[in-house]
């Protein structure tokens, strides 16, 4: 309100999205969230709130479905952060695993934790068949390497690390024993990018010096571009006009064609969908990749799940 903001794009942490959405909606400021997964962000059907990131429940489904493909899996340990991302993601994952007869245990931590010695020893005592890491930022690097040092890392058993590993230059610096780790990715690797995605990746890597383009960087870019197109098509910076344009938009983004099926023009319940599908982009690709060579770029890593995107079989280090 101080700066006369017309609309807002971006957002990474679900906790920020949960806190910010009501403030923006109450002031009639449209928001296109880029990387906030918590289902409730769109689940209360606020007029001015949109999202191009996937739903947390949806990404969790991919994780537990993938976990069921691990040979002889009977027990999974989940490390999660105590945030609006980690808590529901871990709960949804547990629900899916246990519904399919797989035992699971959750270990929670606060953001900023650096020493995992105690948690690692407790996880070792669980003797899991797989470890799933639902934490963001440097925490995922620290835990993954400390687990590797203790003999329960990616070289020892199926291990899903945090998606920050998609910036593989930083990942390998912090996790030298991180080969064979699995990573969940929103979108497909660079080899399968759209033309616009490839053009973005080239400029992004040149300007940042990074070896890969992370999916959350592409989401951030697309969230701005979607809003820009909506404002142009509305011919106005009025919030209601922008909402109307967003509900009718077809935007060719770096991640694919972005559109919104449900909102004021059609309620999700019309198709038997839950409220969380309100102003939700329905088509982001969600894949599981695996590093299968030490030092490998995430853009070159094998897609091992789901079958529709698969480029190689997973390597199971515990076979």
Walk me through what this model shows.
The structure is a single chain. The chain is an alpha/beta fold. The chain has helices spanning 14-26, 40-43, 56-67, 86-99, 117-126, 138-149, 168-174, 195-208, 215-234, 239-247, and strands spanning 8-10, 31-33, 49-51, 75-81, 103-109, 130-134, 159-161, 182-186, 251-253, 256-258, 286-290, 302-305. The strands form 3 sheets. A 7-stranded mixed beta sheet has the order 5-4-6-7-8-11-12, with helices on both faces. 49% of the residues are buried. The model has no long low-confidence stretch (mean pLDDT 92).
Features:
319 residues, alpha/beta, 3-stranded parallel sheet, 10 helices
